[in-house]
UniProtKB/TrEMBL annotation, chains A, B:
The keyword DNA-binding applies. Signal peptide: none annotated. The keyword Translocase does not apply. Keywords: DNA-binding. Residues 22-82 form the HTH tetR-type domain. This is TetR family transcriptional regulator. Residues 45-64 bind DNA. Residues 1-25 are annotated as: Disordered. SUPFAM superfamilies: Homeodomain-like, Tetracyclin repressor-like, C-terminal domain.
Length: 205, 205
């Protein structure tokens, strides 16, 4: 699938001139991200994306393939800030990894610009099995492999997922369900309590 | 609202005979639970619930009020197993509370019968602000108050929510998104790693 979602467009039906194709592709991707964010996976159609981008549906299929593949390409871009999480793990000493990762993830959620697409992905993945499968593939291919490489422990993936569970749960209760007092407490108070837990999952006994 | 969602039906338009009303009320509630589970909050209508229960829409309004109130009554029943969580905290010694609560919550999610309605609640709350508000009220009134009473610490509610965040995140990644290896690992392996975290949040320094 990397030939479809990667930097160059698919070439099933000939190849548009390079400059035009880059602009059109980006416009479709941007429209797709907005449509998926606003409507969720199920209610979004390739036709609607094409209309929002001002192109023909056939062109969307040409560049990306199926709706599932458009979704995958769109969330790969929307998810990009979150995909920098492994950098927080890879760079710096291992005993500060809990705080770096916690700060990074909550930082992405604190920022409304990066929160909106994340929220859309979570909503789609919770509601639709195809969207969940895309999300799973992305986590496995982009996050777990790099985290495991740094931790170098046989149970590194499970450790990473339990650490992620603490952070995902915090994000759900603070930013999505908005349970008080968690929703209003200063983010530093959360980091102080959660960072040691994340550290423990990743490097503890 | 407790007069509407409580054990006895609302009495705005007269009062049906006791035995008939109990049967009808339960039938509506059961239909509501199924409709909300299958379609989520947004796509469910009072009309659809009435049809599934074989009654007139007016009767649904009579017993429960608005769609939001039907939802609140339905999830209060569907959420009942989860509402026993405070018992795991209230009963037994405080230094075993992490394991009891973890076992309890994962137990509810491991069981397909209790998992289905929970999943429906999570989906609705993630997708719809009204459903999220109902969920929030339920958590505040049913869970946090009892947990705070047992912990008797000034930050008891925040502690309870961070513990809940670890468990909610585990449930999301294991049962909803189904990320491997977390989705397939033996539940005891999760309890062994997560119970100390939950204990730490609740009673740690």
């Amino acid at each position: 699938m990397s030939d479809v979602t990667g930097g160059t467009p698919g070439r099933r039906r000939g190849r548009p001139p390079r400059t035009e194709s880059a602009g059109t592709r980006d416009r479709i991707l941007s429209a797709a991200r907005e449509e998926f964010s606003e409507r969720g996976y199920e209610k979004t159609s390739v036709r609607g994306i094409a209309k929002a981008a001002g192109v023909d549906s056939a062109l969307v299929h040409h560049y990306f393939g199926t709706k599932e593949q458009v979704f995958e390409a769109a969330i790969e871009v929307a998810f990009a800030p979150a995909l920098n999480a492994p950098a927080a793990i890879e760079e710096g000493p291992l005993d500060g990894v809990g705080e770096r990762l916690t700060r990074f993830v909550l930082g992405v959620w604190e920022n409304p610009t990066t929160r909106a697409p994340l929220l859309a992905i979570v909503r789609s993945a919770v509601n639709n099995e195809t969207a969940a499968a895309v999300f799973r593939r992305l986590i496995a291919s982009q996050l777990l492999r790099r985290i495991s490489a740094r931790l170098d422990l046989p149970d590194a993936e499970l450790r990473a997922e339990l650490a992620a569970a603490q952070l995902v749960g915090c994000a759900m209760l603070r930013y999505v369900i908005k349970v008080e007092p968690l929703a209003s407490v200063d983010v530093e108070a959360i980091i102080a309590r959660v960072a040691p837990v994340v550290q423990g999952h990743l490097t503890g006994p």
